[in-house]
Amino acid sequence: MPGVTHTGPVMEIVILAVVIAVVVIGALGGLVVGSRRKKQLPEPPPTTPDITAPPAEPHVGDEAETPRDETRRTIEEVDLPDGGTATVEEPPVVEELEIPQIEVPEPTAGRLVRLRARLSRSQNALGKGLLTLLSREHLDDDTWEEIEDTLLTADVGVQPTQELVERLRERVKVLGTRTPEELRTLLREELITLVGPDMDREVKTEPATSKPGIVMVVGVNGTGKTTTTGKLARVLVADGRSVVLGAADTFRAAAADQPQTWGERVGAHTVRGPEGGDPASVAFDAVKEGKEMGSDVVLIDTAGRLHTKTGLMDELGKVKRVVEKHAPVDEVLLVLDATTGQNGLIQARVFAEVVNITGIVLTKLDGTAKGGIVVAVQRELGVPVKLIGLGEGADDLAPFEPAAFVDALIGE
Fold this sequence. Notes:
It is an enzyme of class 3 (hydrolase). The chain is an alpha/beta fold.
């Protein structure tokens, strides 16, 4: 209708807006009041916390126990180290590898003379027995038979004994009266003659052409062969020679360790091979290295072979032949146990058939050995005794000297 204003819808909108504004204002007012109330909450009264002492450190077996009160010391009661300074631990010392000390062997000159007292203690029964018999007022046939028995018991041998007794009978008959000193001089001269003062007893270590000299050491098990090889190395080093040791005994377990130990003591080089290897190859290599090093002497220690084993003896001959592809062998030393007596002569005979023995080493003469074996073995092989062993010491191997040996037999 004209002139009438329509306000119905407009009023509704205005009222709705007012209501919304009122609601919003009310909500904002509630938030402000709530925050003020929170700020005005009184703080809780302070309370003192219960503080408990820390438990004592448990001792062995105390883990499940109730902690005990323990007395604690003040700093004044605690003992401090002298000086009041902290100790600094030294760093651990690293052990250095032990270097084997090279020994200086005893000079060989006059070595047997220095060992004569030891030899005479076990050997002069022969000399004293002979002197006692020769000093009898009447030397009848029974006495001369006793003299023969004394010599045979001393392992002199049948033929040398007969020769000595015959010469003694002739000289005693010519001498007539016999003083103890005359008898001793007579017996000494005859025994030296029997031992053989003119035989060449030098160990051949200087070849005529070029170095090194080659020495083979042979013998049966138990004679002291390997030990003798080591002692001989000491003898040569003492005389100013450089030595290479060939450990050609590859059959016995750990046999190469022994010559290597002897070599290290005096600074000698040792050539060894695998256990059970070819001994001829080891010997060949030893001579080869000896040449390359310019050494004076090569000592070859062979296996201790039973003389009844034909195959092993043939192997020994092979070792010698292989070595001689380098150069001739200058010396073949047969080591015999002097206590074996006549059995040692059998061994000597068989070895001489396999290799050309040039010299003899008699060991264990300081024990129960009979001194006459020196004469018997020389007669059997036709070669001289060059070295004798008089004990277990490293320097108890001595060059054989007939006069010093006889003096030990008959005493002073």
